[in-house]
Amino acid sequence: MNDAGDVLSNKGDDSDGKAADSRSAPGDAGATDRRERDARANGGAPGRASAHESGSPVNGKRPSGERLRIIIADPDPLARRVIRDSLRLDGGFIVSAEAKHGVEAVELAVHYRPELVLMEVGMPGLDGIGACREITTKAPEVRVVMFSVPQDREVELRALRAGAGGFLSKNANIEAVARALRSVAGGEAAVTRSLTSHLVQLLRGTAENGTGMRPVKSPLTTREWEVLDLICAGDSTREISGKLFLSEDTVYSHTKSILRKLGVHSRVEAVAVAGLLRQPKLG
After folding, report:
1. Per-residue pLDDT reduced to its tens digit, 102-116
2. Residues paired with 119 in a beta bridge
3. How many other CB atoms are there within 10 angstroms of residue 205's CB atom?
4. Can you give the pLDDT at residue 107?
5. Domain 210-277 has what CATH class?
6. Which residue ranges make up each domain of the chain?
7. Dihedrals φ, ψ of 185, to 5°?
8. pTM > 0.85: yes or no
9. Which of 150, 179, 240, 263 has the most C-beta neighbours closer than 10 Å?
């Protein structure tokens, strides 16, 4: 099969932007009728999905051939159609719904709780990275994979920090995308080789105490991590104030918040906990 960029240029338009497979979005008055029609079409009882189709574990385990439920989030209806049709042809996925903007992607992910969300970075309104952050907070069991055409290293890193389980090129071959989605659903990360190489270089350039590296999920805000980085580097409140262009009172307030959130009582303890948080989770 051609890569996604080639396929996009050869398909007709699809501008409905509705939930895929005639499945209802939150608040859809025709939900019950459509679910019953879908169930009959798939050979099941009306109003009831099988464990295989619903994504529910059987006897606590997922069947090896079970299809993965996925939401496609992309502002381009043509792109959504190509991805939807390709994943259906693959046979290993059920497209639960489609979203055309970031807020809708969050709402659908929280409503449907699929295994996966495949989302374009450049979503209107709430962008893809912001939507990813909300989804991983509100529905942590849902794994988000970001994708985009432009290769922007900083955007890729921001997506991973926001909780994305992977970042793919929109020009990737659809078979490769399907494999990556299965890997992410299985708990692995899916990133390009160039990004993997960049992450290795970042790790090599990180001091042993982890200064400069931040975990994907953390109770600290970005500003608090900036303050903590400088605390780890041994800077005083006055030095931090000068480097971050903050008042000393503001730095002191951030420091108190950091200690409280990390459950410690001193800067020394905060540095130790920061080192543990920044340790790469291997294996």
Report:
1. 999 999 999 999 999
2. 73, 146
3. 9
4. 97
5. mainly alpha
6. 4-48+62-198, 210-277
7. -60, -30
8. no
9. 240
